[in-house]
Design goal:
single chain; alpha/beta; 60s Ribosomal Protein L30, Chain: A; Alpha/beta knot; 2 domains; 7-stranded parallel sheet; 4-stranded mixed sheet; 9 helices
């Protein structure tokens, strides 16, 4: 299986992560760009073929005009099993669990923030959820190349496994009775963020140990899923002192 990644950061981060690739395609006239130069240097070192072409052909390859003149045919990476992700966690553990987040832009933005705060991984449902698609990889600015991802068939069962591993399951919900910055995130935690508009599903709520909420002083009743999840991730990092992990 092959993933067609596009965008300068996603392709560069895939190369930095030493993800195998069959070929890169670069638009003409970009060799002066520092990121493109590094892409070409890394491709040469790894023995990856590079083709130079016009932007119109790149539009066809990436199925979008937002490729920034760079695309690559990379070998697909199988998702981790949840148990393998739990074994790889550092101390204290930090997971981000997404419940039916279907917008790849939101998934990518959440993955980017999770990687920025050195989260141990991302857990996604196999159904009713966006996957780590090229669009999500582009929105993550390449963070998905460095953030371990587990895909599970049953999110409720996965939350049971996560709880049994000793993590507090902290759900973000408008009806949460604990203000988000009143909870202690210094213990191992799995932050559970719901879908755009719908929020956490009832079964997911029941598998959380606590529901936290964001204070809202304005007239809009909710925040974008990526913004809300980002606030929770950074509150966790703040309480932990932003220590390098």
């Amino acid at each position: 299986m092959v993933d067609i990644l596009y965008g300068r950061n996603p392709v560069l981060e895939a190369l930095r992560a030493e993800r195998p690739a069959r070929k890169l395609v670069i638009a003409e006239g970009l060799r002066h760009d520092p990121r493109v130069r590094e892409i070409l240097e890394r491709a040469d070192a790894a023995g990856i073929a590079v083709e130079t072409t016009g932007r119109r052909r790149l539009d066809d390859i990436a199925h979008t005009e937002h490729h920034q003149g760079v695309a690559g045919y990379f070998h697909s990476r199988p998702p981790l099993l949840l148990e393998a992700l739990l074994e790889r966690m550092r101390t204290p553990g930090l997971l981000l669990v997404l419940d039916s987040v279907q917008d790849p832009q939101n998934l990518g933005a959440l993955a980017r923030t999770a990687e920025a705060v050195a989260a141990d991984g991302l857990v996604l449902g196999r159904h009713r959820s966006a996957g780590v698609t090229p669009a999500a990889a582009k929105a993550s600015a390449g963070a998905t190349e460095h953030l371990p991802v587990a895909v599970v068939a049953n999110l409720a069962a996965a939350l049971e496994t996560i709880g049994a591993a000793g993590l507090w399951r902290v759900g973000l919900a408008a009806e949460g009775t604990v203000r988000y910055d009143d909870f202690d995130y210094t213990a191992p935690v799995a932050l559970v963020v719901g879908a755009e508009g719908q929020g956490l599903r009832p079964l997911t709520r029941r598998h959380c140990d606590v529901l936290v909420s964001l204070p809202m002083a304005g007239r809009v009743a909710s925040l974008n899923a990526a913004v809300a999840g980002g606030l929770l991730l950074y509150e966790t990092a703040r309480q932990r002192g932003f220590a390098a992990r």
